[in-house]
């Protein structure tokens, strides 16, 4: 292996790990804001309990997301200094807006929300969580503005071999960004929906298992109560409402992901045709969408690729909205890329060991092909499971089946898998470029960068291997911590976030007067 490969592995691992927290934070933030609004408007106890329980899980995930996200920006300077020099004039503005505007608002108002219970007026406290949630989504916008520029450079001029930003509004209204942003948000909401559904199913099942809830002759739930452990009638409403809300959010989000994903695919066929050709294993021009293609493992050679099942016309529809236009395949695109960007990397020291080597313009097809399909498959599974769950729980509870409960809980991972697969496809499909060129006539000439030129020249292979191992160890520990905390609070149910709901606690203990009860960040210690 060489330094470039290890640097890519390091950035890929830390980024995918960090993005496990991001969609849940975005989705849960808005969910908690809506739930608290419902409590503010109706005064119903169930919404207060839901706000505090899901809010606790939101905080655990948010804190871990901040800790892992800080590493990302440091890596630009440590392992990717040449990249930072090239894009710095463009990246500086959106990243500064993300840090100084969105993240500051997010942090300040989240702090007010955390410590403002029983201290701030209810309306002001509600405003705090809305401000924090909207700022979280604003933060995602600025980050995606930077990423979308890598996919489709706009708003710059090349001066002395570097892109210099001349129009920040062009960067912030990049058409790639305008479709990527809602696609990412819908993906985040699908994660939150699956999260609510899976955990709510577990607690409804637990109430059945413990004999608290039973089912009448008509199949409808007979809600029981055990206040000593916090399992009263309101507790049942908490979990049934959470399940239904989660299922509806998951299904609506999948519809949103599908619509925005279609727009994004059409744009990518124009802006990064090789990425989409590799995603379809489309070696030759045509209209057919590959249901299944097979080839030799590790080979990007079209001679080793066989299309087993195809749907005629569907690829053309995804790209152009019709069923007859031929879509350029890999064999057609390779000569076009070679004519535009050369057959070999320049013989320049900045390219390290790869200087003067032949350029492979085809991204790893196993990753792009299966990443694209895993994204779609996991998304469809999550939406289908939500529809089934909504139907099963229509009479107010869930079956006593332990296997169905486990399936519902493990189903939480499906939208996470869809999000991760989508991002891996998006980023690896751009290779061999770290900043993709514009092949369309409206593109800005010469604004592109090969990944081989982006890595820091002064960082050795040994240093990168050490930092990769160190990150893997630290992130592994953090993963254990987060999973343990989430498991503990999820299993504990509402009493884990609101100890005062337990019937055996005295008034002082439940009023927030005790030191432990008043410390809303006790979980962090």
TrEMBL record:
Pfam families linked: Cyt_bd_oxida_I (PF01654)
Membrane disposition: Multi-pass membrane protein
Keyword annotations of the record: Cell membrane, Electron transport, Heme, Iron, Membrane, Metal-binding, Transmembrane, Transmembrane helix, Transport
Localization of this protein: Cell membrane
Highest taxon listed in the record's lineage: Bacteria
Residue ranges of the TM segments: 20-41, 53-71, 91-115, 127-150, 185-204, 238-259, 370-392, 404-425, 464-481
Main location: membrane
Stated family: Belongs to the cytochrome ubiquinol oxidase subunit 1 family.
Name of the protein: Cytochrome ubiquinol oxidase subunit I
